[in-house]
Each structure stands twice: as C-alpha cells, then as structure tokens.
Amino acid sequence: MKNIILIFLLFQFNNKLLSQDLKKIDGFAINPKIGPAFTKHGGNELPSAGIEINILKNKLIYSLDYIAHNFLDQNQIDIMMGKYKGEKYFRIQYKAGINIFWGKFSKPGSSNPWIGVSSSGSSFFTLGTVSKVGLKYIPLKNLSIGIDFQVNLNSVKTLYMPMFSIEIGELRNAIESHNNG
To answer: 25, 43, 11, 48: which is closest to 148 by C-alpha?
Structure first.
C-alpha cells in the first residue's frame, strides 16, 4: 500500500518537471540535514536526520525528501515543489507538497508522546502536507550551508523541524567580477 501511494505521489509531482527538457536544468543538490523535531507536546529524545534531492529549473525547486525520526522508528517521505530567490551568495527557498508519514508511537497514556523502547507501541501510517522555508549561504557554486524550517501537517502528529543543512551540487553559476581594468 505504501508503494502504491508513493508512486501516485511521484506522478503528481513529475507532471510539471517531466514536461520540461531535463537536459536543461539550472542545478541540482543533495542536501543532508539534521535537527530536532517538535510537537505541541515537546521534542523528540533524539534528533531527526534526512536527505533531500533537489532539481532547480526556471527559479523552481522540485524536491524529494526523506527524514527519519528517532533512529528510523518514525519516517516521512516528502514530495515538494517551490521557488527560490537569490543567485549569488544568499538564497531563500520556499516549498510545499505532500508526504507520507509512518512508524510507531509509544503506548497511549505514557509520559512519552513519541517512541517508547517497549514493544507495546502502536503503528501508524498517514498522508499529510509539508511546507519548508530555507535560508542558505552559498560560499561556492557547488556548496551551501543553511537553516531549514519544515512543518509536517498530518492527522497523527504535526511536526515542526528546524534543521541544519548542507547542500552539495550545482547550486549557482560562477560569480564573475565586473572590474573595468
């Protein structure tokens, strides 16, 4: 069932991207990231970590994102599309999309709203929406360092995640000096 939903989501995401010539993309990036995840009840005991793959085309960003929470006890896969502004050293990007979120929660009524080490937890699987705003510093044309703030809205647990990220890939063209002489 998870694979069918993921394939459906990928087709929805790819309509606009596949209609464009992929040989003429403006850039791409692989973006490992790490940070805490919070709910209205507090934070996770362990940081969340993930990886995102971005394709940049005509000031648009197409993203596929995987984030693991509490060492793979909870997982999410996001498909997002958005825009970015900034071609030189600083960039802001904003995206939104859909996701699947699955894993286990601790026993109801326990003091830990997240994952428990006991096997008495309950499993869940849900669809949701995701949005992200990122601020990036791009010191080199193939490297950026930044902060992302991501929100996962779903019917099980809404997550708020500030994450440190490093993007590696073709992020911008070389900045040329305009000295006259």
So the answer is: 48
| Residue with tokens 């990886």, as numbered in its chain | 51
> Each residue of 91-140: pLDDT tens digit?
999 999 999 999 987 655 444 444 444 445 689 999 999 999 999 999 99
Q: Please state, in angstroms and rounded to a whole number, the distance separating the CA atoms of residues 33 and 66.
A: 10
Residue 20 tokens read as: 């464009």
Residue carrying the six token digits 């992020």: 171
Which tokens go with 26? 């403006």
**Is-contact 113 104, C-beta < 8 A?**
no
Give burial (CB, 10 Å; 0-12/13-18/19+) of 49: middle
Name residue, tokens 């990122």: 134
- Per the CB < 8 A criterion, the answer to whether 134 and 125 are in contact is no
